[in-house]
Amino acid sequence: MANNEPYQSFEQLKVTVDDGVAVVTIPSPGSSGRRQAAVHAEVAKIWRAIGEDAAVRCVVVTGEAQEFYVSADAGGLAAIPGIAKEQTFELLQRMLGEGRDIVYGIIELDKPVVSAINGPAAGGGLAVALLADLSIAAQDAVLVDPHIALGVAAGDHAAMIFPLLCGMAKAKLYLLTSDPLDGREAERIGLVSLAVPAEQVMSTAMTYARRLADGPQYATRFTKRALNQWLRLGGLTAHDYSAALEGLNFFGAELRQAAEAFNVRDTTPPRR
Fold this sequence. Notes:
about 270 residues, alpha/beta, 2-enoyl-CoA Hydratase, Chain A, domain 1, six-stranded mixed beta sheet, four-stranded mixed beta sheet, 10 helices, disordered C terminus
């Protein structure tokens, strides 16, 4: 029987728990900066709540309608160079703190996480998609790390996990250019676990979630914990450093210039 009581304080995310599997649905916040901030804050907090819920043995995270989660907003970022430095500093601390909570929240959560990437994933949304233990993407889903295109260093998860998943050459290709790729290409280079037709994303994710929830719990959790030592090492190597470098760009002109230009960029994944 579903028990959603531990998640009553989450006003943006939809969380259902049934027979050991929690399904977390991230809404599409649109262009409202206030709504985007509220969603981002809850995505940062949800992992601890799930970790404390004894009824949950596995998590599926997905997006609403045709979007997984796109947390980057060119218009909002373009306004940052125009606000007072003290306000920028405070904004940066909040953003970096929430970004860290998303990245390490998923890594430190012993319970397995399956991402059902049903549509576009960018920014913090890409972090959630790729840091999941199993990532199931729609073949036509667009994945993009827009940091460089927005005039800031590729901070948070990207410098940390891309080289581990797809190698340094492909990591540099997609992070230095901000070129998007679709689910098919993401699977080919090892960025996601599987790419399936769009209509099969959720059912495939739930099939794996059911297997993980019904399997030996400590063996599964201990294996995830051991494998994630590589991610912890990647965090020591690149996460905090890249996030700090990203923060420096908040005080420069490139952020505003790139964000203004971003709205006219072609973000259609190249055909292969």
